[in-house]
Amino acid sequence: MPRITDRLTALGLALPPPVTPPPGVVLPFQFIRLIGRRAMISGHGPLNADGSIAAPLGKLGTELTVEQGYAAARLTALAMLGSLQRALGDLDRITAWTRVFGMVASAPGFQQQPAVINGFSDLILELFGPEVGAHARSAVGMAELPFGIPVEIEGEVEFDA
Predict the structure, then answer these.
(1) What's the Cα-to-Cα distance from 37 to each of 16, 32, 34, 133, 139, rounded to whole Å?
(2) Checking CA distances to 97, which of 38, 126, 134, 150 falls within 20 to 30 Å?
(3) Mutual orientation of helices 66-88 and 113-132 as an angle, nearest 10°?
């Protein structure tokens, strides 16, 4: 079994299927765009094991705690890894996580966006290690995110051809 799949299994984690958008919503873009040896990753949110949008929904600093946001960012990492698995066929092809842009639905005055996005970064580093998993990152607050999700994350990886 591939190395990353082994680590996911050891942690008791599974990759969800593609997102099931709400009724009537069309998503007219690719979740992963492969260009040369780079994969551009569209914004992903937290998903349940069946591909539905994961609760809780809402803003950090009012409806959700930092711990709930951290968990949502971790689920977002799994959703993104599922998309990468489908696009690349094997997560072990990833040679570098280059960039991550984390957006957090934030109530006025909430300033702990980096602690929330750590849920994503910590899992990527745990799975891929410090060499491949190291990434440049931004974590910013947003007034609103699609469908009421608390976290949306996009990124970029390099992979072996």
Answers:
(1) 24, 12, 7, 16, 25
(2) 150
(3) 40
